[in-house]
Automatic annotation (TrEMBL):
The keyword Signal is assigned to this record: yes
Chain segments annotated as transmembrane: none
This protein's record includes keyword Signal: yes
Residues forming coiled coils: none
InterPro entries with a match to the protein in the record: BUG, Bug_dom1
Name of the protein: Tripartite-type tricarboxylate transporter receptor subunit TctC
Signal peptide: 1-32
Family label: Belongs to the UPF0065 (bug) family.
Keyword annotations of the record: Receptor, Signal
Length: 333
């Protein structure tokens, strides 16, 4: 039995419907192909001058030149990074609004804050790991005499009133590094949270506070100028940027290890093609000799990762820091 011929008009209609169906199966496929075709906004959820801001501006400059569109950095500070990060979670998932997230915004805050405006895993797609850095236990040399970890412990325990400890905000890795140190050594330090690392460092230099566990890049200039004294780094290994500064672990507090990281995230639902484009350009940037030199100068570490590898890393970091937050007893309502 012969099948009847399909009329040309009906055949054309069927073809159009098939094309439409394929288009729906691949949302934003055409849109992502010419990305970016306008300005991209990169939100920094902390004030200007801190380590997050430093890496965001470096990446914005490099990505803008590589992709032919302007990448504008916007500082939206507040609530330990939650305010700016949440603004990106609510943005259109088109790749034109990104956030320079941190270990705080995407691994720590979910366990620290009783009410979170966003879910760090469900509301974002991981784009690229940008940098890892140690924190550095540093003091104002005019207010603290100690030059070693053990001297600092003794001085802090004897201080009346207690020494004050600045941080870039509640729940940041800078804050929790200090809390881990307090728990491990039994010292009493009064936490003084700031809206970012920049203003905290300024007050540490000015003598309004005594000590800080800052991200190394945002303090290394003051350390080299002699206005801050480094006592130890918080990472498991010494930093090549400060090779003569010991780790806290090797200074009599075994097992101590607390590092920070910075990375790009996009709102959940952002097309994979856009994420892959951004990831590829970040990886190219990290191979640039000038960028490698800049990272070495500030003590930053490169860890090239695909989006999937980075996503697995973020999940593991969230689980790791949840245990740290629970042990520290820190909580923000």
């Amino acid at each position: 039995m012969r099948m009847p011929k399909i009329a040309p008009r009906l055949a054309a209609s069927c073809a159009a419907m098939l094309a439409l169906a394929l288009g729906l199966a691949q949302p934003n496929a055409g849109f992502a192909a010419d990305y970016p075709n306008r300005t991209v906004h990169m939100v920094v959820p902390f004030p200007a001058g801190g380590t997050t801001d430093i890496f965001a501006r470096l990446m914005a400059d490099r990505l803008g030149k590589a992709l032919g569109q302007q990448f504008i950095v916007e500082n939206k500070a507040g609530a330990g990074g939650n305010t700016g990060t949440d603004s990106v979670a609510r943005a259109d998932p088109d790749g034109y609004t990104l956030v320079m997230g941190t270990v705080g915004t995407h691994a720590i805050n979910a366990s620290l804050y009783s009410k979170m405006p966003y879910d760090p895993l469900k509301d974002f797609v991981p784009v690229a790991f940008v940098a890892g850095v140690p924190n550095v236990l540093e003091v104002n040399p005019n207010k603290v005499k100690a030059k070693t970890v053990q001297e600092f412990i003794a001085e802090a325990k004897a201080a009346r009133p207690p020494l004050t400890m600045a941080s870039s905000g509640n729940g940041t890795s800078i804050h929790l590094s200090g809390e881990m140190f307090k728990q491990a050594t039994g010292v009493d330090l009064v936490h003084v949270p700031y809206r970012g690392s920049g203003p905290a460092v300024n007050d540490l230099v000015g003598g309004q506070v005594d000590v800080m566990f800052d991200n190394l890049p945002s303090s290394i200039g003051q350390i080299r100028a002699g206005t801050l004294r480094p006592i130890a780094v918080t990472s498991a290994q010494r930093s090549p940027a400060l090779p003569d500064v010991p780790t806290i672990a090797e200074s009599g507090v075994p097992g101590f290890d607390a590092s920070s990281w910075f990375a790009l995230f996009a709102p959940a639902g952002t097309p994979k093609a856009v994420v892959d484009t951004l990831n590829a350009e970040v990886l190219k940037t990290l191979q640039d000799p000038a960028v490698k030199q800049r990272y070495a100068e500030v003590g930053a570490e490169m860890r090239p990762m695909t989006p999937d590898e980075f996503g697995a890393f973020v999940k593991s970091e969230k689980e790791k820091w949840a245990k740290v937050v629970k042990a520290s007893g820190a909580r923000v309502d």
